[in-house]
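User:
Note these tokens:
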Amino acid sequence: MPIKKVNLELTDRCNLSCTMCYRQSWKEPPRDMPDEVLDKILSDLDQIETLEEVVVGGIGEPTMHPRIKEVLERLNKYNLILTSNGASLSEDLIESIVDNVDQLVISIDGLSDQFFSIRGFELEVVIHHVKAINAIKSRKKSRTPQLLFQMVISRTNKDDVFGIMDLVSELGATQFIVSNILPASLVDKDLILYSENDSPEMKAFYQKIRNHGLRKGLDVKLSESKLKTERRCRFIENDTTVINARGDVNPCYRFAHSGTEVVFGRAKKIDAHAFGHVMEESLEDIWDSVEYKRYRAMVYDNHYPSCTDCDLVDGCDLVRDTIGDCYGNAPSCGDCLWVRNLIYCV
């Protein structure tokens, strides 16, 4: 299948240091995508006739890249999605967002006090920026960007979810995304709300979120509350590739950077995995490589072990990292909580 969607990480720097962020476990120094790499990518994207959608986001804050406005202008012919924490949006950048972006996804993980404890930043500033976007949309009689808000939910902030839905509904949101926390260290292992088995309390809580969203006119995208058998990778099924800030071509966000995660109380080392670099080959050539094709087929066909609920998981050394699995696949997707819809990404 051809490439239909590209997730472009302009930078892995961020202007905030959120308590639950995957970046907390990174050892690599943060960086912006170099100009020559960005120029090559933009040129490559122009050559892909099947490309429909570009997400400018990643693990960093894309609005920090010095060429963000140029990138939005260059990519506005696609369905263009921008993800942001909404903390540092200048007036001219807001104008560019309204002129070029189809969907703006902003993260809000709590009301004022909880938001500050998680992000170390004032929620009121983010709200001010969203209102400025709405004012310019109104002035230009523009329906875009559609406003989507996302929340990483945990035991720390779960009581704020209904107040956040009220807030984003008032701000004109069309969609509200709720993703579970994926702890980056054992310190946070007890913050998860989801479980391996049925929890009537959490099931009722998640249903209450859905019902509240309906009353507020929100399209709610809600992660699962328990581990289920079904495994579906949205990156693979949507013909998506990820390009990180270095220019590496990765299969998903999970393999874009090395770090750590905790899967149901079990620490795991994540090793970044790339199928090529954009300065060495074209994006389409990397996508069409034998190794990348084999990987996509393996994931699409579910031909990899289900480590998370395997009876042998407690005594298995292979689940300690993502280097390989017991089927001989590399990298290993057997513990991925994204394919279980416990973790959700745009």
Q: What stands out?
A: The chain has a mean pLDDT of 96.
